[in-house]
Amino acid sequence: xxxxxxxxxxxxxxxxxxxxxxxxxxxxxxxxxxxxxxxxxxxxxxxxxxxxxxxxxxxxxxxxxxxxxxxxxxxxxxxxxxxxxxxxxxxxxxxxxxxxxxxxxxxxxxxxxxxxxxxxxxxxxxxxxxxxxxxxxxxxxxxxxxxxxxxxxxxxxxxxxxxxxxxxxxxxxxxxxx
Length: 178
What we know:
It contains six helices and four strands; from the N terminus they run ααββαββααα. It is mainly alpha-helical and 178 residues long.
């Protein structure tokens, strides 16, 4: 109820309702066996909430077309599992990439908010991070006339330092030049 107005009645049946306390636990139970479809083809799955990433290490002797064909087969197997379990995948969130220093393929992609390029140079990720941090720092420093240094530490930690730190494992892969 918001300002005396009620939302529409929604019957919760045969579904996992996002936003409930049990949602993550129920979703993992419901989604957990998707890994079987992925592992049968030799792929490793990484699930976080309702995101599923599948990856496979491929020898350098294979060309990118073969590697991408294997990825497509994995996708088809996962979609078969989805059809049998009434799970739909968002086509806009599906993509294929070959991550390699020598023979990369595909566009940049995001994993948990960190942008990766297929060569793992990470120039785009670092550039966007610097741009965003510069803006955040300038906004923080605009208030320095109203606060002493001690009072600025807390907003720095909350809004800037945490923003930098959660990207650190991804940026670890950046080339030395970046």
